């Protein structure tokens, strides 16, 4: 069932009020450039591992790897 227009507007406002953004792809032709397949990488996680950062593609649209790690490390030090 499709959400009601006012519910969608409220969710969009909720996200945008917190600094996020909402986008959509109304043109089906553009969707051929997208994939629902995740990028998967193997890594050894052991006692030498400081941080394992897992994020959706949304974070990489607004931050570089370095910026994401810097923000993560700042949050770790604040906790």
From TrEMBL:
The family database entries (InterPro entries) matched by this protein are listed as: PPM-type-like_dom_sf, PPM-type_phosphatase-like_dom
Q: Which residues form the PPM-type phosphatase domain?
A: 1-79
Q: Where is the composition biased (Basic and acidic residues)?
A: 1-19
Region named Disordered:
1-28
Name by which UniProt lists this protein: PPM-type phosphatase domain-containing protein
The record lists the organism as: Arabidopsis lyrata subsp. lyrata (Lyre-leaved rock-cress)
Q: Recall the taxonomic lineage recorded for the source organism.
A: Eukaryota, Viridiplantae, Streptophyta, Embryophyta, Tracheophyta
């Amino acid at each position: 069932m499709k959400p009601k227009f006012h519910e969608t507007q409220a969710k969009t406002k909720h996200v945008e009020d917190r600094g996020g953004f909402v986008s959509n792809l109304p043109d089906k032709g553009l969707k051929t450039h997208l994939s629902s397949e995740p990028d998967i990488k193997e890594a050894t996680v052991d006692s030498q591992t400081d941080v394992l950062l897992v994020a959706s593609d949304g974070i990489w649209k607004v931050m570089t790897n370095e910026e994401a790690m810097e923000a993560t490390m700042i949050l770790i030090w604040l906790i």
